[in-house]
Amino acid sequence: MSTDNTSRKEFFASMLTAGLAIAGCSPKKNPFETAAGEDAKASGEMVKLLSVDGEVIEVDRAFLKPMPQMPAVSNSEARKGIAGKKFVMVIDLSRCKNLKKCQTACSHTHQLHSELSWLKVYPMKEEEHTASYWQPTICMHCDEPPCVKVCPVDATFKRQDGIVLIDSDRCIGCRFCMAACPYSTRVFNWEKPDIPEAVANQPYSCETSIPQKKGTVGKCDFCPDMARVGELPHCVSACPNGVFAFGDLNEDSVTNGAETFRFSDLIRDKAGYQLMDDLGTKPSVYYLPPVSRNFPFESGLENEHEKS
Amino acid sequence: MAQPLLTDERIISDLLPQKFGTRGMLWTALLMAICLLGIFAYYRQLRYGLIVTSMRDYASWGIYISNFVFFVAISLVGSLITAILRLSGVHWSTPLTRIAEIIAVAAITFASIIIIVDMGRPDRFYFLILYGRLQSPIIWDVIVISTYFFISLLLLYIPLLPDMKILLAGKERKGIYKLYSFLGSFWVGNHMQYRISKKAINMLCIMIIPVAFCIHTVTSWLFATTYRPGWDSTNFGAYFISGAFLVGSGAVNIAMYVFRKYYKLENYITNEHFNKMGKITIMLGMVYLYFNVNEYLVPYFKMKKPEEAFLNDLFVGGYAPLFWSAILGGMVIPMIVLLFPKGRSPLPMFICGIMIVVGAWFKRYLIVTPTLLHPFLPIFDVPASYKHYFPSWEEWSIASGSLAGVLLVITFFVRIFPIIPIQETLREQHEKTDHQQLH
């Protein structure tokens, strides 16, 4: 999915500048200052832009400046999801050696409170005589999400592209969703997150899940902000072993960045399964069993250290 | 009931609310102190967040929730004594109706308060109304609990109206007199008013039974609608309701003893009342025991994998002492004591009541906490404090504060209003007199 999105990138670039033009309308001082910080002088060269309201507006080129990030989509847009998509993840247990790069990347980019992580790599051993293996676990983005069923205020919701998100501006902190989730994937901000003040003061976006707020629930969001710009979730791109493959079920393709697979072939050939599918939650995350492994289980133990 | 006949004046002077004595003052001061400590602890919780509790991601609910379940449970007694006994034509329970109803109103009020205390964002409480989604059991709970609160309040208020007239005739300080006059000065006690009030009470009594069943069934569904071992049970609604009636009757037993002793109500709350309440308590205990057997022994027989660690932890593991104390001390032993006629006399009834109520509080704790600490995936990659749950001092203070709050509401109520319905006692006395004169 990363090959032919040049045109999409161009489109987003124009959206980006439009977002800037609208976002900069602060009454205090000239909002259209240049990157150098000096007051800009109109160049007379006008550029046509599409505003977020869908209107075509004209802005002087001198008033445009590049923005490091896409402005967040509106709350109602974030609740709808990306049309025509059905995101899935395939986690190949035969490739995991508990490097935890995924966890570090996830916690860092989502600006999580230091005690919390949305992604955990469990050392699993089902029964006495069965094999040990490492199992990265994230939100399953279930198609029958128990958490969404119980949420009293629509703070956690299911989108048309299959992603389950949390609106931290809506969450009342009742933690019913945490009790309902059989995968123990949800975490709670028991105290004010220890994140930089500048991050904490940003307006919350459901798609980036930033900033996490005291007294609300958080969890893996499948990085829909990355999907919008045609990029992979942070855990996927951080993993050097290609454990995670992310993609679109409608396109029947998933990729770990280096390799791209036909989803249905992968699941068929490697006997993919879902976690606790007997509960009827219909997860969007699939696992490939830990057979013909790239690493012995023990090689992952050196990365294991207890939190205190 | 072989009861000496009393004059109207005697009954009224016996039953009118009395000023606090020294003991009453001390009791009230103690309760207020506990409440203040709870408020201070809650201030800390508001300031620093739920981090001041011992709850963490696995034990994400703690004693606030078990306390909530306990309060909802105990409030069911209002419907039992007032409605179920009344509709089945039982008359001996008349003196107990107001005790049961004030327990119900006080408990359900603090159930609502404690659930707000548990919220991570109490400032967004109104979101439940603004954005409420009907498919969430929490919204069902909000609806039925508020309904139950108002029906209970009316069942407390309407039978109080005839007594308000008597109170207004008495000599009281200005402030309280104003309250009586505000609440009940429209009551003149004519035939029409009696007819309307009787009709209203009957309707409310019929209404409150399904609502009472709803509040505790829905409360049980907060757990039973999840997948977790120990909660994933079709037995939960009935199990909770039966437990609720038991703890409620235990609470009434305690209140009967305390009010009778403190206000010298031996003529009104007789040994016969204790005897009958004792029999009801045994029956409710047996029903609850039956549901407990269903709840624990059937999963134990199968020992499904996710249930195994949970059940072993309860029966023989770390929770075993608490579990067996709650089962034996809160259910089996009181029932055995109450089987004997001497066990149904006031003091043993009082002690059994305390055992039942304390056992029930810990039973709720055992319903909430062990399940959360036995998730499907192992507890892993969390700080050590996340792996266990023992309430912090803030949680204990807030929970005790809410319990003290319930007692404080009841205490103030008996200071202001007669805890035994005066008018009804007079009417029954007159009926008895007429009956004797006929012979």
Protein architecture, described:
The complex is a heterodimer of chains A (308) and B (439). By secondary structure, chain A is α+β, with helices and mostly antiparallel strands. Chain A is 21% helix and 17% strand. In chain A, the strands form five sheets. Chain A has a five-stranded mixed beta sheet. Chain A has a two-stranded antiparallel sheet with strand order 1-2. Chain A has a two-stranded antiparallel ribbon with strand order 4-5. The longest helix of chain A is centred in the N-terminal third of the chain and has 18 residues, at 6-23. Chain B is an all-alpha fold. In chain B, helix 4 (77-87) crosses helix 10, helix 5 (94-118) packs across helix 11 and helix 12 packs across helix 14 (320-339). Chain B is globular. The two termini of chain B are 17 Å apart. The model of chain B has no long low-confidence stretch (mean pLDDT 93). Chains A and B meet through strand 4, helix 4, helix 5 and strand 8 of A and helix 6 and helix 7 of B.
CATH class of the largest domain in chain A: Alpha Beta
- Residue stretches of chain A low in confidence (pLDDT < 50, at least 5 long) are 1-37
- Walk across the major sheet of chain A and give the strand order: 12-11-10-3-13
Radius of gyration of chain A: 21 Å
Oligomerization state: heterodimer
Give the second-level CATH assignment, the architecture of chain B. Answer: Up-down Bundle
Order of SSEs of chain B: HHHHHHHHHHHHHHHHH
Name the average pLDDT of chain B.
93
**Proportion of residues in extended strands of chain B:** under 5%
**Would you tell me which CATH topology of the largest domain in chain A applies?**
Alpha-Beta Plaits
Largest interface (CB within 8 Å) is between: A-B, 45 and 46 residues
Number of discrete domains of chain A = 2
Sheet with most strands of chain A: 5 strands, mixed
Gross morphology of chain B is: globular
Specify the structural class of chain A: alpha+beta
Number of helices of chain B: 17
Taking the sheet with the most strands of chain B, its summary is:
none
Number of domains of chain B: 1
User: Over all CA atoms, what is the radius of gyration of chain B?
Assistant: 23 Å
| Strand elements of chain B, count | 0
CATH topology of chain B: Formate dehydrogenase/DMSO reductase fold
